[in-house]
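Throughout our pipeline, every protein is held as a single compact record rather than as scattered files. This encoding replaces a full spatial description with a residue-level series of whole-number codes. The remainder of this section carries one protein's record, kept here as part of the documentation.
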Amino acid sequence: MKPNFLRWMSKCRFLSDRKRLEWYPPFWFMRIKVLTLSADWRHIEIKLPLNFLSRNMGDGMFGGYQTALADPIAALACNRVLDRKYNVWSRYQEVDFRYIGNSDLELRFEFDPQIEQQIRDDLKTKGRSTPTFEYGFYRADGVECTHIKSTVAIRAMDYKPPLS
């Protein structure tokens, strides 16, 4: 059996959730810094540094860096808020690059209590939910330069899709 670094990390009780995110290999190479991660995963702030690896030819943040960091955040938050009792994955993501990201960027994510209630209602009645979250990347001057819409698929562990 091959060693699995991610499985090992997930079982290390001495590692905080912050460190697990920062040390996740793609994020480690991006040099992210978790600024805020509430214990319940409802409030997340992550710094994405602008450096020689993340800078594009236009002197701003490469969009792929932003997209890669934004992709799992909503799904991870759902997984934690729902106590890891469901299968959760990113289903769809829309990225709107509104302004140049010409400084370090800060990803800001909030888990809206209304969305949480809708998820719980959907799971109770249908055994599945597909919520959409909106969050963004902000420049050092406070301007939202990139807006994210992320749709997450949440399914009961025993969920069977209807046959077509």
Notes: The longest strand covers residues 144-156. The first helix runs from residue 5 to 11. The chain has a mean pLDDT of 91.
